[in-house]
Amino acid sequence: MKESTMINGILQMYGAITAFILLAGHFFRKRQRALKNQCFYWMIFADMSMMFFGGLSYLLSTEENDTLSSMSLLSAVSYFALLGLYCLYIYFLVREYREISALPVIIAIGFCVAGGIGWGISSYNNMFYTDAGRSMAARSTMYWVGQVFGLVPIFIGLILLGMSLKYLGKVTVAILSTVMLFPLLVQYIPASPDVQFRYPATTCSLFLCYATLQMEEERKGIELETTLLEARLFLLRSQLKPHFLNNVLTTIYYLCDKDPEGAAEAMNYLSDYLETNLQDTGQYGEIPFSEELNQLKSYLYLEKLRFGDRLTVNMDIRFRDFTLPSMTLQPIVENSVKHGVSRKVDGGTVTIRTEKKENMVEIVVSDDGVGFENKAGTGKDRRENTDTQNSEQGYLHLGLRNVEERLRAISGGTLRVDSTGGTGTTVTIRIPKA
User: Fold this and answer.
1) How confident is the model at residue 311 (pLDDT cuts 50, 70, 90)?
2) Which residues, 6 or more positions from 68, have their beta carbon under 8 angstroms from its beta carbon?
3) CA–CA distance, 315 with 351 (Å, rounded to integer)
4) Inter-CA distances, 341 with 298, 364, 404, 405, Å
């Protein structure tokens, strides 16, 4: 075995071990439900496979050619799987901040599939390279045609990454781009022409990205805890204003003469409602939907006491077995009651519906209240306008923004608002569910 062959094998096995360590660390991380996190998990797996099978193709260079060809085939397929997953990861990342077409990613994945097949076959027929892939210097006449299958996905991935520059910042974008750019640059390092640094460089780039994303995750965690506390305090402040308690308590006062049992029941609802809102103010994470629903029912019961026949509540709960961040639905439903239904002379209806659609849970909160103009879209479309609203509209936007940020970071979910003046508002939440 030549010395360069041994070096290449050791380098790739070292990359495989490093990728395995990253894979184990990523597997035990919390909050893995976000699609982009799952893509990153599979990127590491693909890199580990590419390094492992590539390393074997070098270290077993004295074995039969069929064995080596199989190792090279698996390594090539893993490489193109890594490229496709990278584009998919960037797509899900950008989609958190803006609407984006899936067409470029579909094209990139198509090139990856074709490239994996073409380069895999080359392990047997030497279409793009010779020597069973043990030396990329042994190129065939169609080598540069084969390079197109890898360069197109890289180009598409970098374009998608550039689209998120203003949201992620230059440092994060630069680090994420190293997954594709660093291996391309490293292959031009002056060294022995038979020593391949390109693929181990991919593992190093993933390691750098992993460390950066971990730090970013910790930073977002701290911000989300602050956001949750802010949301709870803001919600409590709005609920504990004199007019809220005064209206509820006045209603209960009149019930004492007309319906003592109803008054006692109302006091129990109010007590449970306030106790639940006041306890665990700094809670971070997910809770069962049933807990959120029970709190919501207490709130709607109290509002029903105030508005009577002016408020109709319809609940179409088709699916319950899921979790969501605490304080997700209450701010949305309160917006529907306060800013929608209560402003209509004849009142209106608030509808809450849940159902499971394939691998997603969909929660829809809709009302036929007064609505509001030009605010349709996801929360990310409305952020720049939040600070320009008056205090009442500012509450509406703050509540939705906090809910959306926690949904995205904790559950990997999305939130969309569609509203038309005079018609009503619909808020749609989608949460991944295996």
Assistant:
1) very high
2) 57, 60, 61, 123, 132, 133, 134
3) 6
4) 18, 16, 22, 26
* Displacement of CA 350 from its chain's centroid (Å): 28
Distance in angstroms (rounded) separating the CA atoms of residues 390 and 152: 48
Give domain status of residue 258, yes or no: no
Last residue of a domain, which of 219, 247, 274? Answer: 219
**Angle between helix 170-186 and 143-163 (nearest 10):** 170
Tell me: do 319 and 171 sit in the same domain. Answer: no
Give buried/exposed letters for 358-388 (b at 16+ CB in 10 A, else e). eeebbbbbbbbbbbbeebeebbbebeeeeee
Residue that finishes a domain, picked among 219, 246, 278: 219
The residue-averaged pLDDT of 237-258 equals 73
**Based on C-alpha coordinates, what's the Rg of the chain?**
28
* Same domain membership, residue 331 and residue 210: no
pLDDT tens profile 265-283:
888 888 877 777 666 445 5
Q: Which helix (H) or strand (E) holds 323?
A: strand 323-325
Specify the residue for token string 């305090």: 233
Please indicate, yes or no, whether residues 215 and 314 belong to a single structural domain of this protein. no
Residue 334 counted as domain residue: yes
Cα pseudo-dihedral 316, 319, 323, 329, rounded to 10:
-10
Containing structural domain, residue 38? 3-219
146-156 CB burial, b ≥16 within 10 A, e <16: beebbbbbbeb
Q: Give how many domains the chain has, as a whole number.
A: 2
Shared domain for 317 and 200, answered yes or no, is no
CATH number where 21 lies = 1.20.1070.10
DSSP class of residue 336 equals: I
The helix (run of H) or strand (run of E) holding residue 119 is helix 103-125
pTM of the model: 0.55
Mean pLDDT throughout 162-189? 77
Let me know how long the chain is. Answer: 434
